[in-house]
Specification:
The chain is mainly alpha-helical. The protein is about 75% helix and about 0% strand. The protein has a single domain, classed as Up-down Bundle (Four Helix Bundle (Hemerythrin (Met), subunit A)). It is built from six helices and no strands. The radius of gyration is 16 Å and the shape is globular.
Length: about 150
Amino acid sequence: MIDAKTQQPASSAGAASAAYRSATVTVAPTTAIVMALDRVLLNLKRTIAATEAKRFDEAFNLTSHSTQILRGLAHHIDVAKGGAMAERLQKTYHANIMAMLLAMGKPDAVRRYQKLAEGLAELRDAWAQIAKIPPLAARPNASDITGTPTSTAA
């Protein structure tokens, strides 16, 4: 086992992987996934604000961090064990990575980031259900993460 505190990973994927391993030591793996996706959603909200304010360096850095997190999640999927479902999840993470990277600098980048946040919020809530964590809509400050108001009405 690698001690994430003493060994520096060689790549950004390695950094994301080390962060995931470190989180899973203290919380259940499904909870770590929810926490990672919460961070991606928060980064996307901040990316939208940075893009709207024309702080493109900040938006780039936030997008890079989000893609590192998603890469780390995709890297930890055991496709041999999970079969078709694991492959589909891995493809979902990779598709979101590509969509984030392709959104940068586009005239409709904010709309693209918002759409990504909506889809990732759904994925986050699916993992949250497995981890027995409340969905974003049930959280009082859920709009702080997704950037869009949430409703608790059913």
